[in-house]
TrEMBL record:
Keyword Heme: yes
Organism annotation: Mycolicibacterium chlorophenolicum
PANTHER family with a match to the protein in the record: BIFUNCTIONAL ALBAFLAVENONE MONOOXYGENASE_TERPENE SYNTHASE, CYTOCHROME P450 FAMILY 4
EC id: 1.14.13.133
Gene Ontology MF term list: heme binding; iron ion binding; monooxygenase activity; oxidoreductase activity, acting on paired donors, with incorporation or reduction of molecular oxygen
Keyword Metal-binding: yes
InterPro entries: Cyt_P450 (IPR001128), Cyt_P450_E_grp-I (IPR002401), Cyt_P450_sf (IPR036396), Cytochrome_P450_Monoox (IPR050196)
Name under which the protein is recorded: Pentalenene oxygenase
Family stated for the protein in its record: Belongs to the cytochrome P450 family.
Superkingdom as given in the UniProt entry: Bacteria
Length: 455
């Protein structure tokens, strides 16, 4: 394993090859967090160094896009990478949370939160997407033309409101979605600039982003206070966070920590689950035969509201979702700062570099995925999954600091997809749709589909 290589041996390794593309092109590609990765890899290989300015001012970026590279960066146990400028920007805007804390401060928080997010525990607060998806279906009793992006965002927001905050957001959902968009676009835009204005500078966009975060925090603060006052209040995740303790020190979380984490769960969970569901519905809308299989599987469970207990009988639906997030990973790329020289696939990555882990390129690599653009849920049959390198498919990342919401997201999107497809046939009306990647991957415009109720 790479971490066994001694420091002296690492020092003797060559740097990752410098990407030969012209600077101007690289600047654009680095901001195009999904498809840009493939162009970068085609020119410089699966581990390639990008220098966007003088090394004293702008740290090198090392793009890593192969399973071996992922393993060498993520599969280490020596904490050689840590949070980077993206996380610092989110921290500056939304405060300390599990997502942004540097490793050392993160560990106790993770120890306290992890038991709340196990596969078994998420059933205590998850499952609301089935009801939110049913509400979507009920809004279209005779079918019609819909924008899948709008509908799935609404489903995700309503179910997150219930699961994370323990409230029905109703029309407040749209306001929160707007606030989240303002705050995350601002932070992502800043994080991706090679040079940025100091945080204390009171720009108009910063003020708007701050107001948006404050509006969201009012809601999370209210929920924490309400649950403190009423321990029987039906908000299981908030109650679980209040009860959570660091198993090593027995320290509970403060109200501010809980509020910040609730905020980040909403931010990290909304666009990601919405995009997974939208893409899955859209691609099923082009593959009627696969859609019929999902519908039959869901119908075999029964016609009542689907619950977490049903997920074990929705194996093919889960495969469809895996294939959807392979093709359209909601988190297209992830970055870390390297805190000491490390080896990545035989190259030296120097302390201070930014490693950019290209999940989009990894998931579309023709060497790893034959005919990578083809939609084929059988890639995720149990036999195929077993035979595959575990570092080849990483929608939720992997290693020591993966997505804490993975089980929850899988549960919710499976129930939602099965609920919609059991009730409706989806016909996608557009051959393709454009995405943008301010932070996570989101649709750039409407995604039109025709819904036809199943008799
Ligand atoms: C399909 C849905 C989702 C995908 C693809 C996804 C993907 C990811 C990825 C790739 C990361 C690593 C980011 C980084 O290290 O910079 C991450 C982290 C995280 N995600 Fe998710 N996520 C999803 C849903 C959720 C949900 C529903 C929640 C909330 C409950 C959530 C909460 C978080 C948090 C708090 C972190 C930071 C974890 C830590 O640093 O310990 N995610 N997610």
């Amino acid at each position: 394993m790479a971490q066994d290589v001694t420091d002296a041996a690492v020092r003797s390794l060559p740097l990752a090859p410098r990407n030969p593309l012209p600077l101007r092109e690289l600047v654009k590609l680095v901001r195009r967090l999904d498809t840009g990765q493939e162009v970068i890899r085609a020119a410089g290989g699966p581990v390639t160094r990008i220098q966007l300015g003088p090394a004293r001012v702008v740290p090198p970026i090392v793009a890593v896009m192969s399973p071996d590279g992922m393993r060498d960066v993520l599969g280490r146990n020596d904490a050689a990478t840590d949070r980077c400028i993206i996380h610092e920007e989110v921290r500056g805007m939304a405060g300390d949370s599990l997502f942004v804390l540097p490793n050392q401060q993160w560990r106790p928080r993770k120890r306290a939160l992890q038991p709340v997010f196990t596969k078994a525990s998420v059933r205590n607060f998850g499952g609301h997407m089935a009801r939110a998806a049913q509400a979507f279906v009920d809004r279209w009793p005779t079918g019609g033309e819909v924008d899948l992006d709008v509908e799935c965002r609404r489903v995700a927001m309503q179910s997150l409101g219930r699961s994370v905050l323990g409230i029905d957001l109703n029309e407040r959902g749209d306001t929160i979605a707007r606030c989240m968009h303002v705050a995350s676009s601002y932070t992502a835009d800043r994080a991706l600039r090679p040079v940025r204005a100091p945080r204390w500078l009171p720009t108009r966009s910063r003020r708007r982003a701050r107001e948006a975060v404050d509006a969201m925090r009012t809601i999370t603060d209210e929920m924490v206070a309400a649950c403190r006052a009423d321990p029987d209040r039906d908000a299981p995740l908030v109650q679980a966070l209040i009860a959570a303790r660091d198993p090593q020190t027995d320290r509970p979380l403060t109200d501010a920590e809980i509020s910040n984490d609730l905020l980040i769960f909403m931010l990290a969970g909304h666009d990601t689950t919405a995009t997974a569901l939208t893409y899955a519905l859209w691609i099923l809308g082009h593959h009627p035969e696969v859609q019929e299989r999902v519908a039959a599987e869901a119908a075999a469970v029964g016609d009542g509201e689907l619950t977490p207990a049903d997920v074990s009988r929705l194996g093919y639906t889960v495969q469809v979702l895996h294939e959807a997030v392979r093709l359209c990973p909601p988190a297209a790329g992830v970055a870390r700062v390297v805190t000491r020289d490390i080896e990545v696939t035989g190259y030296r990555v120097e302390k201070g570099s930014l490693v950019a882990l290209g999940l989009y390129a990894l998931h579309h690599d023709p060497e790893l995925w034959p005919d990578p653009m083809a939609f084929d849920p059988d890639r995720f049959s149990p036999e195929n999954v077993q035979a595959r390198d575990r570092w080849q498919f990483l929608p939720f990342l992997g290693g020591g600091r993966p997505c804490i919401g993975e089980h929850f997201a899988r549960l919710e999107t499976t129930l939602a997809l099965a609920t919609v497809i059991r009730a409706m046939t989806v016909e996608s009306l557009d051959d393709d749709f454009e995405c943008e990647v301010p932070f996570t991957t989101v649709a750039k415009g409407p995604i039109r589909a025709r819904l036809v109720p199943r008799s």
